[in-house]
Amino acid sequence: MTAEKITSARNPRIKELILLQSKSRERKERALFVVEGARELSRAIEAGFVPHSIFYCSKYIERVDLPKVVEGTEVFEVSADLYDKIAYRGGTEGVIALIRMEPLVLEKITLSDNPLVIVVESLEKPGNLGAILRSADACGADCVLVCDPLADVFNPNVIRASTGACFSVKCACCTSEEAYQWLSTRNIFIITTQLQDYSLYYDIDLREAVAIVFGREDRGLSDFWKERSNAKIRIPMAGICDSLNVSVSVAVICFEALRQRKRIT
């Protein structure tokens, strides 16, 4: 079947796409989000997410080279000029899709026998959240709990920074209280990351079931988590800076957990 060709930014479907790119409220109300790039779209489909519609530009990719989608997905061809206007970033191989949103709830998460859980509280920057999801995938974390979020997990910058790892990592959005109760009922040891006067991260046993909690970029952790942690750790700082970017901190500590668990070969 020949794809309908769209050349105007005034087309209702293009207007919808642009709105979903920029507005978190619209994404939530319509239960749709935007994925840009052949790699990211393939990873979304492999993880079970269902495309609602796909927009491609034959200047950059042929229809036969699009990731395989379920029957009934609408496919549109857009002109090169229009694609260059609507593309959120460069180098995305000429494809943008609207994907049906799945609820990110704790009830859907299953854990391994010896889980490694990443908890982030009130993160504000989508790029940081995306980088954390990418690290979670790389270190084999069981899941990421996004508590009291200020950044939308389905923000295009999250998807971009995660390189699509946001689809492979189990993720739930919840309150800190809900996350704490969920961890407690599963007897998961809670470790908080803080700046001073606590154990160095590599001196703590990370081989058992643990949840490592990281705070907001500008304020760190709230008292809620500090008062409920089973252990407190820090990363030593040898220079004039007193902290690392939160996504870097997640990578440093979680790869120490990976090392201790002897998953590195």
- Give a short account of the largest sheet: 7 strands, parallel
Number of individual domains: 2
Beta-strand level of the residues, as a percent range? 15-25%
Span between termini: 48 Å
The coarse silhouette is: elongated
Explain what you see.
With 265 residues, the chain is α/β, with parallel strands linked by helices. The chain folds into two domains: 4-100, 60s Ribosomal Protein L30, Chain: A; 106-260, SPOUT methyltransferase, trefoil knot domain (Alpha/beta knot, 3-Layer(aba) Sandwich), CATH 3.40.1280. The protein has helices at residues 12-22, 24-30, 38-46, 80-86, 126-139, 156-162, 176-185, 223-228, 246-260, and strands spanning 4-6, 32-36, 51-56, 74-78, 95-100, 116-121, 143-147, 170-174, 189-193, 199-200, 210-214, 231-234. A seven-stranded parallel β-sheet has the order 8-7-6-11-9-12-10, with helices on both faces. A five-stranded mixed β-sheet has the order 1-4-3-5-2, sandwiched between helices. Helix 5 (126-139) packs parallel to helix 6 and helix 5 packs parallel to helix 9 (246-260). The longest helix has 15 residues, at 246-260. It is elongated.
